[in-house]
Amino acid sequence: MSRQSNRATDSKKMNSELFTLTYGALVTQLCKDYENDEEVNKQLDKMGYNIGVRLIEDFLARSSVGRCHDFRETADVIAKVAFKMYLGITPSVTNWSPAGDEFSLILESNPLVDFVELPDNHSNLVYSSLLCGVLRGALEMVQMAVDVRFAQDTLRGDNVTEIRMKFIKRIEENLPVGDE
Amino acid sequence: MACVSAAEPERQQKIRSWMGHFRLVKCSPGSFDACSGSCRVSLRTDAVRKMTVHNLYIFDRNGSCLHYSEWNRKKQAGISKEEEFKLMYGMLFSIRSFISKMSPLDMKDGFLAFQTSRYKLHYYETPTGIKLVMNTDLGVPNCRDTLQQIYSTLYVEYIVKNPLCVLGESLQSDLFSSKLDSFIRALPFFSVRAA
């Protein structure tokens, strides 16, 4: 019995290590290819966007979450359902702006940055930019334009990782233009 | 599933009382058939009634038709396929906005289905704007879960998770088409020959 559970936790640990190492290899290769931190950040964001656009469909298929009625509900679903499903962590939702259109996700741990230290010559690199792109792409597919950025990053010396998300506007669906 | 000849009144009575439990009954001419959900009983003397799926459309959020298959369509629309897809999408868009405007109560799920005297159109839409439309005959009860299953086990698995499939264009995946075809044919309310 205990052997079975060891194997289960071992395989989970294996998967997350493989994931962390794969992401690290990706960022390293991008740094070699582009040699400019800003460019790497942009590329990571773009890749994240492409992931997010598809990930949202998988998310909707696997969770039975319906349409969210407001931004607060969206924030709760992102933190409690989506992050838990894909990264196994549950960030907390805090720092709501007075208008209710901006909030922060505080991540105690970030599985992407296990074992990672930023070297001095890459001080502008936002290592987990992929996450920003994923959130942006996924929300765009459910008609929400948002701006996502890292406000605090443990790799840059802060205590926690903080992702700041701001609601920009609702994307209205348009009737396709006819040919005639 | 029972099949009763019309010449046994006592058994007819018994069958009538447990009609509600039956789904689809295959009958020979001159006997009862019943459908659960509506508890309709009709005496058919000629062709047997079978339930079936006529066709299926999948649209994306921009109105492009990603996929169309038909199984039992006896009458064509008389216009080209592109026009038909545009007509279908335009109708769905108008119905959805009509429904939300005219609803006397707060909207929950919105548009579910419409039915005519010959067929029923079932509709399912995801929050990402993927719309699944299935035309079946009248015997089929609510099949939103079927459409949701098509979305989650077929569309997401074979299209979204395939990096070579470009989203937003007509789907080119043979695997998806064949899996969808076998899924539809395996449905309990599908039969090859419509009434």
UniProtKB/TrEMBL annotation, chain A:
It comes from the Eukaryota. Its main location: endoplasmic reticulum. Keywords: Endoplasmic reticulum, ER-Golgi transport, Golgi apparatus, Lipoprotein, Palmitate, Transport. Gene3D superfamilies: Trafficking protein particle complex subunit 3. InterPro entries: Bet3, NO_sig/Golgi_transp_ligand-bd, TRAPP_component. GO terms for cellular component: endoplasmic reticulum; Golgi apparatus; TRAPP complex. Coiled coil: none annotated. Belongs to the TRAPP small subunits family. BET3 subfamily. Homodimer. May play a role in vesicular transport from endoplasmic reticulum to Golgi. This is Trafficking protein particle complex subunit. It comes from Cyprinus carpio carpio.
UniProtKB/TrEMBL annotation, chain B:
One of its GO terms (cellular component) is Golgi apparatus. Keywords: Endoplasmic reticulum, ER-Golgi transport, Golgi apparatus, Transport. InterPro entries: Longin-like_dom_sf, TRAPPC. The keyword Transmembrane does not apply. SUPFAM superfamilies: SNARE-like (SSF64356). It is found in: Endoplasmic reticulum; Golgi apparatus, cis-Golgi network. One of its GO terms (biological process) is endoplasmic reticulum to Golgi vesicle-mediated transport. It comes from the Eukaryota. It holds the Pfam family Sybindin. Transmembrane segments: none annotated. Its main location: endoplasmic reticulum. Belongs to the TRAPP small subunits family. BET5 subfamily. PANTHER family: TRAFFICKING PROTEIN PARTICLE COMPLEX SUBUNIT (PTHR23249), TRAFFICKING PROTEIN PARTICLE COMPLEX SUBUNIT 1 (PTHR23249:SF16). Part of the multisubunit transport protein particle (TRAPP) complex. The heterodimer TRAPPC6B-TRAPPC3 interacts with TRAPPC1 likely providing a core for TRAPP complex formation. May play a role in vesicular transport from endoplasmic reticulum to Golgi. This is Trafficking protein particle complex subunit.
